[in-house]
Design a protein that fits this description.
Blueprint (H helix, E strand, L loop, with lengths): L1 H16 L4 H10 L1 H21 L5 E2 L2 E2 L6 E5 L2 E9 L5 E4 L8 E5 L2 E5 L13 E6 L3 E9 L1 E7 L2 E9 L4 E4 L2 E9 L4 E15 L5 E5 L5 E6 L5 E3 L4 E3 L2 E4 L4 E6 L5 E3 L1
Parallel strand pairs: 3-7, 3-9, 4-8, 4-10, 9-11, 10-12, 11-13, 12-14, 13-14, 14-15, 14-20, 15-21, 16-20, 17-21
Antiparallel strand pairs: 1-6, 2-5, 5-8, 6-7, 16-19, 18-19
Helix pairs in contact: 1-2
């Protein structure tokens, strides 16, 4: 999501050019978030239109996905997005009961794409999405892009996962991934019972990340931040903004303006 990097550059420029205190600069950046939400909402509506124009066949309304699903791409705007494991045999979609504007989905070559509406919608009411995933299903990839939606992922296994939300909170519980990337502007990230084997990244302006692993791996972590801090239990070795623990095999990269990182 371009919003995060734009805001990061904006704040860094403010830090260099302004004579205000760091606290005032970060506060000013937070005040710009509302404008960014409006811009990013427009971008997502445009993305939805482009997806529909791509030629894929979309079905209107939630329900069970009859086709085999190996990958998910979810675009949402506002409300809650939940991806949860269940004992069923197929992926199932549910949205807020009685929603006047129905979601659309397509499934082609194993890739499930879910969007909140059709084209030419510019003022979508808040609504929730729940995606039920068979507990035995291991996905190759998960991508969730949202604006002001909280995103929660529970008890899923996947190769790669990318979760983006401007102001929404991101919660990951009892999941296993090869790679996990989380991006927010002001939303916090909370991960518990987490397993990541190759790479983990978190980018935010003022959001914090609390990462609790199912079994703490050896890692090499790098934090690029203006005022944010890194803390770990047990304490990691620190040198020039790089933190290491154990064999250092898991790569972790963090980029914030004032957001803090905790690892345990």
């Amino acid at each position: 999501m371009k919003t995060i990097k734009r805001l990061g550059i904006l704040v860094l420029a403010m830090l260099l050019l302004s004579g205000c205190s760091v606290a005032k600069k970060v506060t000013k950046a937070a005040g710009d978030i509302k404008d960014r939400v409006v811009r990013d909402t427009t971008e997502i509506y445009n993305e939805i239109t482009d997806i529909i124009k791509s030629g894929a066949k979309f079905t209107e309304g939630a329900g069970e996905i009859g086709d085999t699903v190996s990958e998910m791409d979810i675009v949402w705007i506002t409300g809650n997005v939940k991806l949860v494991a269940y004992k069923g045999s197929c992926v199932k979609l549910e949205e807020t009961q009685g929603a006047k504007i129905k979601l659309r989905y397509s499934c082609t070559n194993g890739k499930l794409v879910v969007i909140p509406c059709g084209k030419d919608v510019k003022d979508l009411p808040t609504k929730d999405l729940t995606v039920y995933v068979p507990a035995a299903l291991s996905l190759t990839g998960i991508r969730v892009e949202a604006v002001s939606a909280d995103v929660a992922v529970t008890e899923l296994n996947a190769g790669d996962a990318e979760i983006e939300s401007v102001t929404g909170k991101v919660t990951v519980k009892d999941c296993a991934f090869r790679e996990l990337g989380i991006e927010t502007v002001s939303g916090d990230a909370s991960c518990t019972g987490l397993t990541v084997t190759k790479k983990l990244s978190f980018e935010s302006v003022i959001g914090n990340a609390a990462l609790q692993f199912a079994s703490l791996p050896g890692y090499t972590a790098k934090l690029d931040s203006v005022t944010g801090r890194f803390s770990a239990t047990p304490s990691a070795k620190s040198r020039n903004g790089v933190y290491t623990w154990g064999d250092g095999s898991l790569t972790m990269e963090f980029e914030t303006v004032s957001g803090n990182i905790t690892v345990s």
